[in-house]
Amino acid sequence: MPQVGLWYVNLSDSDLTWTAESAQMSFFNRFEVGLSHSDVDASKATGEGSVNFNTITAKLQVIQPGQFGALTPAFAVGYMHKDTDNATKIPDAVPGLGGSRLYPDDSGDDYYVALTETFYDNVGLPLPVTLNVGMRWTKGYLMGVDGFGNDWDNPYFASLAIGLPTPKFVPGHMALGAEYADSSDVGEDRLGREMKTSRMYDIALAWLPTPKLTLQAIYLNNGSDNIYDGLEAGQNPIKLGDGFVLSTQYHF
């Protein structure tokens, strides 16, 4: 079953905007493949052009929910190939390295495992609660948008979604969700500076006016500092501040 999505991210603290289009296709309710293209623009802060960021994904649900009993969580393994055309260069004045690429690589692979369980009638809750936890193995700096380091890190992630009572005059269903992604450290750039990414969290309100359409408004936080703080300190930015995300997804 195919699915398409559109995303708009605005992190005003860093004068950064991110637009993305994605498409996924699932087979037999177990295997999913997808691709996405993003345009990430932080040119006001960096003085450089926007970045094209592309991702190819694959996910296999090894264990389906309830397969071995009412409280058996779904278990999935996933793969993501990412590439970026970020062209950040080392200043020409640096002997031997001037004009060459700042980050070790412009493409990389992520791997992850995840457990997902929905608690509702199976435990007697009045509202559905879905919990997802997992771990990711990555070399991506700022999720790979800027580039990739030489070291692997394995940050964890988690999300929680709660179905909300929906007023009778509102069609469909609503849900409240939260996500958290741990910080990562993938080594150093070619000038010996750390390539770290701060932890992130978001809080989302979702509306499903029909079973096929999902609309979301999201508050996103990537740390108290912003891209300017890192650049002014002569470091790779670690935090990008906070902002909002708008998204829509449609299941055919």
Automatic annotation (TrEMBL):
One Pfam assignment: DUF3034
Domain of life: Bacteria
InterPro entries the record matches: DUF3034
Name of the protein described by the UniProt record: Porin-like protein
Protein source organism: Halomonas ventosae
Lineage, top ranks: Bacteria, Pseudomonadati, Pseudomonadota, Gammaproteobacteria, Oceanospirillales
